[in-house]
Amino acid sequence: MNAIAPVGISPSAFLDRGDVKGNAARLRAADYLRTVGLPRAGVEAWKYTSLRALADVPFAAARRDVDAGAVDTLLAEVETISGLGAGASRAVFVNGRFDAGRSRLPQGVRVAAFDPAAEMRDGIDPAGDVTTALNTVLADDGLALVVPAGVDAGCLLLVSIGLAGEDAPVSFHPQHRIVVEEGGRLAVLDAAVGRGYYLHNPLYDITVQEGGYLSHARIQAEGKKALHLAVSHARVASRGVYDSFTLTLGASLSRHEVHAGLNAAGASVHVNGAQLLAGHQHGDLTSVITHGAPDCISRQTVKNVLADHARGVFQGKIHVERIAQKTDGYQMNQALLLSDTAEIDAKPELEIYADDVKCSHGATVGALDDDQLFYLRSRGIPGEAARSILIRAFLHDVVDQIDDARLKDSLNLAVEAWWKREVA
Amino acid sequence: MPAVAETRKTVETLGQNTYKWGFETDIEMDIAPKGLNEDTIRLISSRKNEPQWLLEWRLKAYRSWLEMREPTWAKVHYPPIDYQDVHYYAAPRKKPGPKSLEEVDPELLRTYEKLGIPLHEQAMLAGVELPEGEEARPPVAVDAVFDSVSVATTFRKTLQEAGVIFCPISEAVQEHPELVRKYLGSVVPVTDNFYAALNAAVFTDGSFVFVPKGVRCPMELSTYFRINARNTGQFERTLIIVEDGASVSYLEGCTAPMRDENQLHAAVVELVAMEDASIKYSTVQNWYPGDENGKGGIYNFVTKRGACRGARSKISWTQVETGSAITWKYPSCILQGEGSVGEFYSVAVTNNHQQADTGTKMIHIGRNTRSTIIAKTISAGQSDSTYRGLVRMMPKAAGSRNFTQCDSLLIGDRCGAHTVPYIENRNMSARVEHEATTSKISEDQLFYCRQRGLSEEDAVGLIVNGFCKDVLKELPMEFAVEAQKLLQISLEGSVG
């Protein structure tokens, strides 16, 4: 911790690809990548996750002409995982590009073409963190969707399909902007799947206006060799709700960083998640919830189930500003280790500057409870079945936090599928 | 909400309190010139008549310190420290031992008096030679560290009979070099961190305790640390070794004179517990916190670490931190022996512009090791207080347990309270539980006390003491009383 800090590794392969001319945000982001670079060891925000896997790898732009058959196979896989059939409205992205032919956008919403020159909304610093900067420099497509005031736009399946070879690494950096206007409603089931060696680096720019409601569940089921670096920037206005969930199943290395800002009285945000990892997978869920106004509510429950050599990381910060009196913040982080070689690293953090608040966090880490196992076994349930019951109950508990029934069903299906595939 | 308004008002008036123990003793001092280089270290080493190996150890520490950077990860802010603008050695001039208290420097006596040291202990501290056959028997042995040199050590004889060595570390270097050489730096290596390296290079004195096999130390050991001379860095080095089946309880209390310039303090405490040994280390820290505008105050950068080397050994840290402008302190336990136990009980109070970043590290290495962390943080005025703790379960720590509870209390809306726990688990059968809460004194609690006739100040005192009860009850009796008084004094004015 005392060694002189070297500048991080420069992601030159990415910088060479980005066209930053005439775009202030891109210039700033590129400048950040050039000077600060990928986080070096010892950077607090990246204490438990290393991006060495990105250094020295010449990630090329992802191809657009991909095998249509493979796309359809993966799309069918998503439909199976999510339980949302072909009839549901959906937006399909293949290698980061919008696939109009396979998409059916919901009724009553406004969709704009992606405009790389469009400024990101206030409050997102393109050079605030490496994931945002990388996306800002290279974003060339994304969903730009507005749910008009008072409209309930139903449920949208947002699919990302990555297709790459095993040896020629590619990357894609979609930038999705979702605005839910006053009193509007939308549920988004966001599923990422793929095959081959690729980096998926999406950015979600989310605005929930007064009384709006956005439910956003992500199923990250990327290919085994994939890298996944996602960042969400959510801003919630008075009486608005942003109910988010991240289910991490895939990728060899993944991180989802959530920055949620409660900017007006009475806003609420849920940043829940579960990471189910096996093999040598590394999954990181990092969140910063900022209470910037009085009377806001934040809820966070994150669970990890880690098998084999998997490593799970949770870093959650609740920041309560001076003005945010009557804040109600709760954070719970739990992990189950299924093997002696798995590892969990957790850093649940409270930073509080207001006195009249109710903030608490809890964390438990360990193996299955022997008493609970004994209880089930004493009732004639075999050991393995008892373990299975307990672990799935542990996970159902967090999936249950999602309000939207459709999303809840989809996530439960995905959890069950993972269980059957990886553990049972 | 009259209570809130009043609490706020009283917090604002808090700064008008003067530091109760802000006084300065004027005694002739032997001071080394300002600045740090190899010559300073050689001077310290030769003044203390140290063996060659210790000088080399110091120089090694100094050379690695030169390569290090001051840590910046803690949530504390202060102007850069000029390490060349500090005196690294200050010792009271040696005089032959006085025959009675009348011969003792009255300044020194007044210091003791303000510290509340009983008269017969004062005599012993001042090195008064008692007539033959007359032996006072207070229950506590005091090794007073008066600036960097231990002025006197009392009750040496009683301890000697039990086989316990309790003396200034400089003396231990002369008389028990094999023990010092074996254990010094074995828990906190010279290269451990910036401040520990600095301490290793320039430490002038501190306490040394050795409790041999099977001995239960017959009395509580206590040291009063005082920072006294102007612009003198205080670099204490404490080493406590407890052998198989032995036990000791060590008390450390601090007060310091009021002054304007910030003072640097970088102490190192090393504890070693062998099989079935137990060490209880209690601290009440009440150094000058600076005035109500954040001017002055002690910078307290301390490295405290205990190694539970043997099976079933136990190390327990208890601290009440009310003083210092800046506190950077993480008393830790390395739980190596199978079934060893680590404990950390802490109350940290910050007021005005104080900043405290304190917590603990529990490193579970051995099987079935257990640790408990109870940290209570109280912030008032414009202060910032952070709990920062690490619990790490190593792959072999099967069946180990940790329980952590961190509670913060905010008084007023201009202060901050932060909790930064790190939890790392690499063993599936190890279990870590952590919980933290942040709140303020509720209107209901205040109202309940007030309607039963308690003044607001007494009510808050009662509630704060209740909030800290889990920690205060871990303190030895005499410290618990002092600590309760301290909490009251620290929050005085903020509440009525």
Automatic annotation (TrEMBL), chain A:
Domain SUF system FeS cluster assembly SufBD core, chain residue ranges per copy: 170-394
Record Pfam families: SUFBD_core, SufBD_N
Highest taxon in the source lineage: Bacteria
InterPro entries: Fe-S_cluster_assembly_SufBD, SUF_FeS_clus_asmbl_SufBD_core, SUF_FeS_clus_asmbl_SufBD_sf, SUF_FeS_clus_asmbl_SufD, SufBD_N
Sequence ranges assigned to domain SUF system FeS cluster assembly SufBD N-terminal in this UniProt record: 23-152
PANTHER family: PROTEIN ABCI7, CHLOROPLASTIC (PTHR43575)
Family the UniProt entry places it in: Belongs to the iron-sulfur cluster assembly SufBD family.
Record protein name field: Fe-S cluster assembly protein SufD
Species annotation: Komagataeibacter melomenusus
UniProtKB/TrEMBL annotation, chain B:
Record domain SUF system FeS cluster assembly SufBD core: where: 225-467
Domain of life where this protein originates: Bacteria
Protein name (Swiss-Prot/TrEMBL): Fe-S cluster assembly protein SufB
Span of domain SUF system FeS cluster assembly SufBD N-terminal: 158-217
Family assignment from sequence similarity: Belongs to the iron-sulfur cluster assembly SufBD family.
UniProt-listed InterPro entries: Fe-S_cluster_assembly_SufBD (IPR055346), SUF_FeS_clus_asmbl_SufB (IPR010231), SUF_FeS_clus_asmbl_SufBD_core (IPR000825), SUF_FeS_clus_asmbl_SufBD_sf (IPR037284), SufBD_N (IPR045595)
Pfam families for the chain: SUFBD_core (PF01458), SufBD_N (PF19295)
NCBIfam families in alphabetical order: PRK11814.1, sufB
Gene: sufB
SUPFAM superfamilies: Stabilizer of iron transporter SufD
